[in-house]
């Protein structure tokens, strides 16, 4: 692994040390501390706190970060609970049996929310984030395929997984780490998401499953799980291949049940074997927490599950990580109790309303053309209208907005659409209508500034940048 060059690594003494403000230093303490090696001596807690506090203060304002899906705010009671539970290790189910029981309650609630046939018969687990949850969902698909192939006396070599070219990078990692061939279905102007079109070109006897995304990272659009399932039904009728779906619902699995409750995307569709979500995205919890649920015990092969006994009971565990925080699990349970279905509906619909309002306003700016309108998850993207200008692009606009504190990424679309650059806004809980108005004012101001240029802006060199 080759680390990115660090501007702090210079020969200047001042850039290799942390200097204390005289106001903060105490008699007898060092006034300079090394940045890249352990100090020789100790510091007072107050001094060490002030150093870390002041360095972290240089980060951006999380509330103005319109790039991230990850939650940036919780209430004071959640903060207290977080501090009280910071020492709990989720893997130690014998020492913390109540936290383990609460974990089970949470994923059972999710199984119920996602319309599992029998929620108490479903299987689930918490994870560090939805990336780990995706890995577990993919591993279950692979192992289930391997068992079926061996039972039929066939080879288990060359497994493949079918996914959209706009898939999140964790799926690329899964295929790389667990030796599965990724088969990317390219998106296009006509098919902006994986929608079942020509799916039979990618599915064969070695396909372990198809990934459907409820909220594509690039744009926030839903992939139509029901249509994908219909395409797989037709393939099975012709070929006999029974291919299951994993729904990557990192964001949408906590939006659709509350904003689009009639939309069939979950365990109501028989081909859906498993679903993951991010507790730390629209589950409204601080990072890092993910969840994955399998529709029933048949969907999760038993030989992937380890069992731990506690209090005379039996606790199945399936995870890539071992020690990990238990506090976020308690925060998720707190929010489930605190908000309930009515509260989650109100919170998610508020974010949804702000997103569709913002998209409508931005769509009216002559410089822009919307790629989508925020009616799926509260996320939308736009591109520069063709022929509008030769003097600036969306990377320049992103830089101008960053100078005002707003983080709004500009990036190329995935393979086969890389000539299209878009900007994306993620509306999260806490991004109010008032903040949206403030953002619109700054956006219009910067667009007017760029439109008034009499010559081209210099290249930013950011053409390949993308932040998930």
Automatic annotation (TrEMBL):
Residue ranges of the region described as Disordered: 1-41
Keyword field contains Transcription: no
Catalyzed reaction equations: L-glutamate + H(+) = 4-aminobutanoate + CO2
Alphabetical GO biological process terms: L-glutamate catabolic process
Cofactor or coenzyme needed: pyridoxal 5'-phosphate
Listed GO CC annotations: cytosol
Cross-referenced InterPro entries: Glutamate_decarboxylase, PyrdxlP-dep_de-COase, PyrdxlP-dep_Trfase, PyrdxlP-dep_Trfase_major
Enzyme Commission number(s) of this protein: 4.1.1.15
Record-listed N6-(pyridoxal phosphate)lysine modification sites: 281
GO MF terms held by the record: aromatic-L-amino-acid decarboxylase activity; glutamate decarboxylase activity; pyridoxal phosphate binding
Comp. bias intervals (Basic and acidic residues): 8-17
Keywords assigned by UniProt, alphabetized: Decarboxylase, Lyase, Pyridoxal phosphate
Domain of life, source organism: Bacteria
Family: Belongs to the group II decarboxylase family.
Record's protein name: Glutamate decarboxylase
High-level lineage: Bacteria, Bacillati, Actinomycetota, Actinomycetes, Micrococcales
